[in-house]
Amino acid sequence: MYFNLEVHLCIEGTGVLSKGRFAARKKSEIPMVSYQVIRDLKRETGYRTTLIQKVIVNGTEDITEEVKKIECKPIPPLDNIFW
């Protein structure tokens, strides 16, 4: 499924708006795809201090809090990974 994404960020005091059409296999994956878009924007801007202000899907659905929860998740320990 395709969805329209609108991301409002504040990068070191400067407002940035990014829009685009993206794909997800199911609706529950939209916050993760949105976070990946934000992560790519951070990489492009040199990992400067970035605050997520708003994340809007299809012009009406605000998923800002869901994306912020993904951003704040701790990195899992490598002890549990079996090679």
Strand fraction equals: 35-45%
Q: How many angstroms does the end-to-end distance come to?
A: 33 Å
Helix/strand/pairing category: alpha+beta
Widest beta sheet: strand line-up = 2-1-3-4
Q: What coarse outline follows from CA principal-axis ratios?
A: globular
Order of helices and strands: EEHEEH
Q: Which stretches are low in confidence, meaning pLDDT under 50 for 5 or more residues running?
A: none
Q: How many strands, what sense, and barrel or not for the largest sheet?
A: 4 strands, antiparallel
Q: What is the number of E strands? A: 4
Give the number of helices: 2
- Rg value: 14 Å
Question: What do these coordinates show?
Answer:
- This protein is α+β, with helices and mostly antiparallel strands.
- The protein contains 2 helices and 4 strands.
- It has helices at residues 30-44, 64-72, and strands spanning 2-11, 14-23, 50-57, 61-62.
- The protein has a 4-stranded antiparallel β-sheet with strand order 2-1-3-4.
- Strand 1 (2-11) and strand 2 form a beta hairpin.
- The chain starts with a strand and ends in an 11-residue tail after the last helix.
- The mean pLDDT is 91.
